[in-house]
């Protein structure tokens, strides 16, 4: 367990660990198994001769972004020239019809991506991931932002979705400036919240969906998956990503290939050899969401995904966790083949989120009582 004051010495807390009360949460398959795990030092995509050149080049190019600030200062008031509105707004329909599956994939992506070392520092530095109550606020707020982006119009300056994404871009900028120094003091190496970190976070949101759509009950067409990719390309753009570092600027095959490379060379090794604080954060995120989603546990989620990722599941599972795991298998593997069950689970999740938003204090109190407040 991580005490409240545990923050990597490299990163100073830049806001109090009481989180940020101004949170805007007012109401607000490619089921083919990934290749066997590469050794954690297999960082060079060139080491994989079977990859097409274009993909090797793509991952290399993304990695160059590790030295570049995450926000390229592109204008936030105009859509990108490559925007295909029809495909972008089709993501809204897909989200509406598959809310449960998409929410679950995003949550899984987030609980996994915090294992990548470059993510942990900036997240810890703000104090908003300092304990279970903070994590509850932080990730409920994230859910609300992301839902607005799907449901609204991020390119229309008068739309709440645009205001929300601009606000998040501002949050990233403040954290990055605080850690890196301002652009004038940081000319070359800007390690925190880099363009590559942005691409890795895009992976957290869209990577698992396109690598394993059926595993999360998404039985949709190739075109639909490409609409989701296009949507996340637009999100990346609006958050200040440069086109060449955007994970999502290819078609389905290209994006799947580069996501598989990220899985092999970044995610799997990081999850296999986790830092102490990443594990705590990962567990804390799921525990916080479990306050309003029954049968959700870190162990069940981890087993559900580790098996898919060819990772060992060497953690104990109690009856509650095993039940949760088998329910996940049954729900995503069987029930969600049918549209009526999508509707049913979408409905249940909407109610649960609404309840969590309306009774935040109740859930925060519950978490504070049931988990040591000073520990994640
Ligand atoms: C596509 C890329 C990304 C998306 C979609 C995204 C999404 C979000 C969202 C929705 C919020 C608002 C959370 C809230 O209201 O509390 C947020 C805040 C934040 N994000 Fe990101 N993010 C991305 C990339 C990153 C990266 C690469 C980092 C750092 C390595 C990062 C670190 C943070 C931090 C520190 C905050 C402020 C809230 C806190 O203290 O945790 N984000 N992000």
From TrEMBL:
Signal peptide: none annotated. Keywords: Membrane, Transmembrane, Transmembrane helix. InterPro entries: MPAB/Lcp_cat_dom. The keyword Transmembrane helix applies. Residues 100-301 form the ER-bound oxygenase mpaB/mpaB'/Rubber oxygenase catalytic domain. One of its GO terms (molecular function) is oxidoreductase activity. It comes from the Eukaryota. The chain crosses the membrane at residues 97-116. Residues 22-53 are annotated as: Disordered. PANTHER family: GH11867P. This is ER-bound oxygenase mpaB/mpaB'/Rubber oxygenase catalytic domain-containing protein. The lineage of its organism: Eukaryota, Metazoa, Ecdysozoa, Arthropoda, Chelicerata.
């Amino acid at each position: 367990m991580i005490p409240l004051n545990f923050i990597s010495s490299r990163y100073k807390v830049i806001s109090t660990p009481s989180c940020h009360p101004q949170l805007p949460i007012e109401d607000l398959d490619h089921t083919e198994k990934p290749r066997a795990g590469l050794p954690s030092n297999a960082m060079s995509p060139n080491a994989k001769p079977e990859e097409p050149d274009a993909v090797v080049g793509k991952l290399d190019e993304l990695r160059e972004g590790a030295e570049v600030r995450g926000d390229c200062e592109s204008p936030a008031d105009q859509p990108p020239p490559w925007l295909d509105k029809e495909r972008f707004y089709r993501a809204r329909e897909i989200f509406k019809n598959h809310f449960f599956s998409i929410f679950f994939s995003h949550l899984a992506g987030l609980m996994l991506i915090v294992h990548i070392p470059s993510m942990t520092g900036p997240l810890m530095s703000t104090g908003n991931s300092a304990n279970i109550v903070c994590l509850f606020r932080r990730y409920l707020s994230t859910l609300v932002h992301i839902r607005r982006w799907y449901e609204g119009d991020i390119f229309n300056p008068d739309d709440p979705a645009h205001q929300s994404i601009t606000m998040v871009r501002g949050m990233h900028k403040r954290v990055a400036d605080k850690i890196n120094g301002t652009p004038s003091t940081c000319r070359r190496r800007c390690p925190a919240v880099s363009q590559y970190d942005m691409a890795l976070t895009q992976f957290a949101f869209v990577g698992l969906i396109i690598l394993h759509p059926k595993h999360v009950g998404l039985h949709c067409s190739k075109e639909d998956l490409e609409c989701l990719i296009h949507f996340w390309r637009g999100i990346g753009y609006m958050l200040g990503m440069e086109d060449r570092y955007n994970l999502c600027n290819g078609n389905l095959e290209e994006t799947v290939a580069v996501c598989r490379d990220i899985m092999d060379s970044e995610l799997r090794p990081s999850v296999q050899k986790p830092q102490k604080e990443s594990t705590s954060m990962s567990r804390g995120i799921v525990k916080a969401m479990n306050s309003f989603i029954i049968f959700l546990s870190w162990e069940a989620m981890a087993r559900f995904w580790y098996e898919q990722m060819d990772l060992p599941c060497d953690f104990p599972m109690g009856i509650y966790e095993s039940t949760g795991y088998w329910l996940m298998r049954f729900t995503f593997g069987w029930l969600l083949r049918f549209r009526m069950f999508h509707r049913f689970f979408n409905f249940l999740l909407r109610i649960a989120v609404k309840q969590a938003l309306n009774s935040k204090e109740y859930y925060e109190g519950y978490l504070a009582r049931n988990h040591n407040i000073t520990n994640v």
